[in-house]
Amino acid sequence: MDNIYDITIIGGGPVGMYGSFYAAMQGLQVKLVDSLEHLGGQLTAIYPEKYIYDLPGHIKIRAGEMVQNIRNQMNQYEDKITISTSSTVTDVVKEDEGRFLIRTTKDSFYSRSILITAGNGAFNPRTLDLECEHVENLHYFVTDMNQFTDKKVVIFGGGDSAVDWALMLTEVAKEVTIVHRREDFRAHAGSVDKLQSSNVKIYTSYKPVQLIGQESHVDRICIEHVTTGEQIQINTDDIIVLFGFVSSLGPIKDWGLEFHKTALSVDSTEQTNIDGIFAAGDAATFDGKIKMITTGFGEAVVAINAAKSYAFPGQTHRHQHSSNIGAKKL
Question: Which fold has domain 3-123+245-329?
Answer without folding.
Answer: FAD/NAD(P)-binding domain (3.50.50)
